[in-house]
Amino acid sequence: MAIFGKVATLEAQGCNKKYGKVFEFLKNHDLAAEFNGMNPGDKKTVVIDENNKAIFQVYKTKVHALAKLEGHRKFADVQYIFEGQEIIGCSDIANIIEEPEYNEEKDIFFTNATKQLSHIVLAEGEAAILEPSDLHAPCMMIGEQKVAKKIVFKVKL
User: What is the pLDDT of residues 113-135, one digit of tens each?
Assistant: First the structure.
């Protein structure tokens, strides 16, 4: 299941073996400068190396019913909240009831057919590590709809 918490805690727990480039990027990159001038709906990708990229996103959090449960096969996600907060719905891939259609080029599939859904609350400075076994429905609102800024790191497995 997903691992989540403060970045320093994730790194201290040994998650840095696979995700070291992500933690290094978060510590050494000017994240505020990357978000400068971005508005809700904007996305920007920064290539870290051949196996890692960072997707900067500014968006309005979603009503839970509009969140899509997604999965990946070739990449893990590290979703880091720079500003704001959100709920991420999570379910183990073993809980899929119907086999979804997979888009190999974009490494993504969507499903709402799952037996169980848990929720993770992420606030500023927190991240969730989502492996291919972790289906996830990100960007869900807490309370009312608000603007959030997030970096989704794609880590090639």
Answer: 788 889 999 999 999 999 999 99
Query: Strand 147-156 vs strand 102-103: parallel, antiparallel, or unpaired?
Result: unpaired
The DSSP 8-state label assigned to residue 12 in this structure reads: I
What amino acid occupies position 94?
A: A
Tokens 């492996």 -> residue: 131
Q: What pTM, to 2 d.p., does this model score?
A: 0.95
Q: In this structure, are residues 74 and 107 in contact, taking their beta carbons and an 8 Å threshold?
A: yes
- The C-alpha torsion from 7 through 22 and 26 to 107, rounded to 10°, is -100
Give the C-alpha separation, 134 to 29, whole Å. Answer: 27
CA-to-CA distance for 140 and 68, rounded, in angstroms? 10
